[in-house]
Design goal:
This protein is an alpha+beta fold and about 625 residues long. It is built from 13 helices and 28 strands. It has four domains: about 35 residues; about 240 residues, no CATH class; about 160 residues, Immunoglobulin-like; about 45 residues, no CATH class. Helix 1 packs antiparallel against helix 2.
């Protein structure tokens, strides 16, 4: 395309009789360039690939989870001959940003609505905190990383039409223990995390997100991205992730760099997760994918190396899938029906087909209805604010371990600088169930309370208008236990310019994060769970299962990291009377107006003595001014 620009410029200078020929040649050249640029062969030669996948999972409460994932992969050039600036399928603006700001890893998510793990099980992605979350690993020194972090937030704010430029030092966290999976060998960057709990998700964020796709919303799975349905939802999470990995660790089919052990690829993934209720659209019993999204896949994306729709069915749920799937397998202890959209044909012979799901009535399921398990996470976290008044308060977090074995977790909590945390007030108490954990009578089961001591802890105090306070704890949760963390804080005073427009509503405080390693999540462990389930085996998180199925991760280590987010809470801060300046100005202006009028009359008028004089003709008196 760059070679066509000089030719097109000369064509504009041709005389008018050659305009028709110019148009024909221009159209032919552009068509050739676009077809060459979008062809899979051209992309393979350039070392780039693109895949698109849709995961559909009916939930236990009648709702449906749709998880879209679009993945780009591009070989990183080791030379400085300019080839690192040539892009075919990979989004150029993302590649330039990663190169400009020395980014090794980047994660960004926009989430609206709370993920209900009790009814829906594990989330499809590990980032599901309400608001906007941004995390990056940047190479360089401390000062260099701080400048690059500021530039990165501003750049992504413009790309995704968001308020990420409001992420500054006052709401930036530097995790030391959390996100350990980012600290991979060969990476020397520093980790930064920013959170905007007030950020809303809208179509203005979705539009630039869709424009990064090669086929956008014209063909392929992207054609199902109907904003009218995506935002009529119960949960919505949209984001992207960018990471630099070794070529040997990726599932790339390219062997051009197989002889170089240090060859790396840049992997860029766009994900979108929504929870829809078909009943709100008038869909009962059986419905198709096109009816659910009010649009259809006309044809597969021609530049995609893989285009699949994967339907997860819980055994005994009474759900049938039509037409016949291209292949079947097991994912996260669920039956997975895989439809290859590149090979799927409808009745008219087109290159895409609709997928229909039919539900059996609950009365016909019998005992099978009870076998539908949402697959709740082993660990759950909830956090809320305690206390009353405008001067102090407390934070209490409850972490529950539902498993039969102790679980090692990492706990990350960060509060803004105007909530002054007293770290010495931290208390950790665990209530453990002794006996039969499933028993309802107190004779069969009893609770024992004990104080827990963290195996490791890091506390970073806040600096007024400089940085937030950060608390990281490493804890071991006993089996069948409920652990409570509590600490107190004082509320600081803010300038009237630091309050949001709706100051009386309160300040949104970001969520706490709990992460833990889930062991036994490989293929062998998954097969053993289906054949011989054991009480101490943990169910594979959906986010890990998706990465393992689509990108081949966790297959060797058979373990992954699950991350759970707590709810937001509102901090009611002492607010000034914003109407008082208006009252003072009005009262003062009224007094000044009255006082000024009197004084102005006294200073500007000329006072004189009036003497009465009698008129002789009529015998009357008139007052004359002498």
């Amino acid at each position: 395309m760059f070679l066509l620009q000089p030719l097109l410029l000369h064509m504009r200078l041709l005389p008018l009789p050659y305009v028709g020929l110019t148009s024909v040649v221009t159209a032919a050249l552009l068509a050739a360039s676009v077809s060459g640029m979008n062809s899979p062969t051209s992309a393979a030669v350039s070392g780039e690939s693109f895949t698109e996948d849709l995961l559909l999972k009916p939930l236990a409460d009648g709702k449906v989870l749709l998880h879209f994932e679009f993945a780009f992969q591009r070989r990183q050039s080791q030379s400085n001959n300019g080839t690192q600036h040539h892009y075919h399928l990979f989004p150029r603006q993302i590649g330039e940003i990663a190169l400009r700001y020395d980014v090794d890893e980047l994660h960004l998510s926009f989430t609206q609505g709370n993920w209900r793990e009790a009814q829906w099980g594990y989330p499809p992605v590990n980032s599901q905190g309400v608001g906007a979350e941004m995390r990056a690993q940047i190479r360089g020194s401390e000062d260099h990383v701080a400048k690059r972090w500021t530039g990165l937030t501003n750049a992504l704010s413009g790309v995704f039409c968001a308020s990420l430029n409001f992420i500054d030092s006052t709401n930036t966290v530097v995790p030391r223990m959390m996100f350990a999976e980012s600290q991979q060998p060969g990476r020397s960057g520093m980790l930064r995390q920013g959170y905007l709990p007030r950020e809303n998700v809208c179509t203005e964020n979705l539009t630039p997100w869709i424009k990064q796709l090669p086929c956008q919303s014209r063909s392929g799975i992207g054609a199902l991205l109907n904003p009218h349905r995506l935002y009529n939802m119960h949960f919505h999470s949209m984001g992207m992730s960018l990471e630099s990995v070794k070529l040997s660790d990726s599932n790339s089919n390219s062997n051009s760099n197989s002889g170089n052990p240090d060859a790396r690829v840049l992997r860029y993934t766009q994900h979108l997760s929504v929870v829809l209720d078909p009943r709100s659209f008038g869909l009962e019993g059986s419905w198709s994918l096109s009816e659910l999204m009010d649009t259809h896949i006309a044809q597969a994306c021609p530049v995609a190396d893989r285009s699949t729709v994967r339907v997860l069915v819980s055994p005994g749920s009474g759900l049938s899938v039509k037409p016949e799937a291209s292949s079947k397998s097991v994912l996260a202890d669920l039956d997975m029906h895989v439809f290859d959209m590149l090979k799927q044909k409808d009745k008219s012979g087109k290159s895409a087909a609709d997928i229909e799901l039919e539900f059996v009535e609950a009365s016909k399921l019998g005992s099978a209805k009870g076998s539908v398990d949402p697959g709740r996470p082993v660990v759950a976290v909830h956090r809320y604010v305690t206390g009353h008044g405008g001067s102090s308060g407390g934070v209490e977090a409850t972490i529950t371990n539902r498993g039969d074995q102790p679980v090692d977790i990492l706990y990350l909590d960060s509060l803004p600088w105007y909530l002054r945390v007293y770290s010495h007030t931290l208390t950790i108490t665990s209530q453990k169930t002794v006996g039969d954990a499933k028993a309802t009578s107190s004779s069969a089961a009893s609770e024992v309370s004990e104080n827990l001591t963290p195996s490791a802890s890091l506390f970073t105090p806040a600096i007024d208008r400089g940085r937030p306070s950060t608390m990281e704890l490493a804890l071991t949760l006993p089996a069948h236990s409920r652990t409570t963390l509590w600490y107190s804080f004082d509320k600081g005073f803010l300038k009237y310019t630091e309050h949001p427009p709706d100051a009386n509503r309160g300040f949104n405080i970001g969520p706490a994060i709990v992460s833990y390693a889930v062991v036994g999540t490989g293929d062998d462990a998954q097969t053993s769970r289906r054949n011989q389930p054991k009480p101490n085996q943990q169910q594979q998180p959906l986010a890990c299962a998706i990465k393992e199925s689509l990108h081949g991760e966790y297959a060797a280590s058979s373990r992954c990291t699950a991350r759970m987010y707590s709810e937001l809470f509102l901090a009611n801060m002492p607010t000034p009377d914003f109407s008082m300046p208006y009252n003072v100005i009005t009262f003062t202006c009224t007094i000044l107006a009255l006082f000024f009028g009197r004084i102005f009359n006294l200073l500007t008028r000329d006072f004189a003595v009036l003497q009465p004089r009698e008129r002789k003709d009529e015998g009357t008196k008139e007052i004359l001014v002498e």
